From TrEMBL:
Protein name: thioredoxin-dependent peroxiredoxin
Oligomeric form and interacting partners: Monomer.
Keywords of this entry: Antioxidant, Disulfide bond, Oxidoreductase, Peroxidase, Redox-active center
PANTHER family per the UniProt record, alphabetical: AHPC_TSA FAMILY PROTEIN, THIOREDOXIN-DEPENDENT PEROXIDE REDUCTASE
InterPro entries: AhpC/TSA, Peroxiredoxin_AhpC-typ, Peroxiredoxin_BCP/PrxQ, Thioredoxin-like_sf, Thioredoxin_domain
Any one biological process term the GO annotation gives: cell redox homeostasis
Family of the protein in this entry: Belongs to the peroxiredoxin family. BCP/PrxQ subfamily.
Role played: Thiol-specific peroxidase that catalyzes the reduction of hydrogen peroxide and organic hydroperoxides to water and alcohols, respectively. Plays a role in cell protection against oxidative stress by detoxifying peroxides and as sensor of hydrogen peroxide-mediated signaling events.
Length: 148
């Protein structure tokens, strides 16, 4: 994973509607990047729905949530609509963002990883789950965020 204290690498990736979104657009805001292996898989769905159900915990902390995986914009659109996800999902089909953040798993998919970036673009927290079959429960993720 990228190291705490480093400048977050810039990226531009398409969202679920195909519109390009750059990290620099969020300058002045805290951003939580959530790298995950894939749309509509059991663990990823549980994870992102858990975050959806508790999204106010992020907004109360002034944090914008952005999910990133190698799935296509169309896959993200269907996934977000099906599960009513209230945050951006970005398509990293070439895995350029996952590579830049050292969040690429051994099977060529994104690891289940989290990167909290401050208002100036500095990494405050970087964490990845060792096993892709589990995810960081909301209370544990928030505890890590609050400690950073």
């Amino acid at each position: 994973m990228i190291e705490k204290g480093k400048q977050a690498p810039e990226f531009s990736l398409p969202d679920a509607q195909g519109k390009m979104v750059s990290l620099s657009e969020f300058k002045g805001k805290k951003v939580l990047l959530i790298f995950y292996p894939g749309d509509d898989t059991p663990v990823c769905t549980a994870q992102l729905c858990d975050y959806r159900n508790n999204v106010t915990q992020f907004t109360q902390r002034g944090i914008e949530v952005i999910g990133i995986s190698g799935d296509s914009p169309e896959s993200h659109r269907q996934f977000a609509e099906k599960h009513e996800l209230p945050f951006l999902l970005l398509s990293d089909e070439a895995h350029s963002a996952a590579k830049a953040y050292d969040a690429l798993g051994f099977l060529g998919m994104s690891q289940r990883a989290y990167v909290l970036i401050d208002e100036q673009g500095t990494v405050l927290l970087a964490y990845s789950d060792f096993l892709p079959i589990t995810y960081q429960p909301m209370k544990d993720l928030l505890a890590r965020i609050d400690e950073s």
